[in-house]
What we know:
The chain has 15 helices and 18 strands.
Amino acid sequence: xxxxxxxxxxxxxxxxxxxxxxxxxxxxxxxxxxxxxxxxxxxxxxxxxxxxxxxxxxxxxxxxxxxxxxxxxxxxxxxxxxxxxxxxxxxxxxxxxxxxxxxxxxxxxxxxxxxxxxxxxxxxxxxxxxxxxxxxxxxxxxxxxxxxxxxxxxxxxxxxxxxxxxxxxxxxxxxxxxxxxxxxxxxxxxxxxxxxxxxxxxxxxxxxxxxxxxxxxxxxxxxxxxxxxxxxxxxxxxxxxxxxxxxxxxxxxxxxxxxxxxxxxxxxxxxxxxxxxxxxxxxxxxxxxxxxxxxxxxxxxxxxxxxxxxxxxxxxxxxxxxxxxxxxxxxxxxxxxxxxxxxxxxxxxxxxxxxxxxxxxxxxxxxxxxxxxxxxxxxxxxxxxxxxxxxxxxxxxxxxxxxxxxxxxxxxxxxxxxxxxxxxxxxxxxxxxxxxxxxxxxxxxxxxxxxxxxxxxxx
Length: 459
């Protein structure tokens, strides 16, 4: 491929200010998770709209130029890693909320729009976009769609897949597939948007999104409870699902190791002497009645012996302080090396799984540290493990310990972050040969030359 021809054609397509090269590319961070490296690619293109994305991909496809798509760079599976030979396609200029339909409860935005911006725009109309996560200020809606993000409220509102109504996507050859549906019901043929949700940028580039909004809750009740055995953690979840009905929006569990680490440098709402800490959130429609109901439900749970200790947030400041303990995952990066895992498995199997993982890690590395937390209400557990050294075989050995038991449990090596480069060698541990074969067939059909995020998900 002629690099000078590529550059000259890109400059014509998107303009000089939208094309960065050399040191201007490498000066950029490769992500928010503390990676020591920056972007290795020689060229980064910043298109301003769908038409420019189509022009860039058409040129790249014609010239067999590999393309790596960048959104908010909050992923943890190296899905956005670009090599020297790659071109980075950044969606940062596809930023902004295009429109909101308060009657239909929909919002249309560019793929580069931060999640927090969408949440704020919905709130201005008395509505809510329920997807939420700690990286809300940085993560973009396009990246959320590309990875089928989950976050904190999946037990009530579902994954991104259930929140997206319409997409505009550019295929590898520059074809624009505009399926900007605004309706909840539309069974006119195949639901093509589902091909691209969770495809990690390997089938097409999402440029615009129509999402479904919900009513803004009139009440928000949050509590942090301490429990000393896992059986009661699961029994409390079952009780709250019944007692709170469809108002239960989050059930986040932090093991003692995680809670203790996070409260070293901040006030601890509860003493760090329980085995498990559960963040419970209830979103409702009755500001007075919901608060009273929440207290009653927790009192009854304590009477039933399901809770050892609890504290209820009395203000927005209290709520933020409790959520900050759960959300501040980035601070774990001060420990080196730090290996992050995102798995899912049946809730009934979680306690034994974590116990076995901890024992296996201790056998290999007696001074290992493992921090466990996650969205237990939907079976998603996060493990942050510091063991061995960043070089050598430590990571591969730790991955084997974490992933190998999941197949027998009917679990998944990825609950919400995708496969990227990091997990692709383990994909067949939780997907059949037939499933992977269909995935490859889709890739080969929609990206004939294999230019989009090459090497991600599978080779």
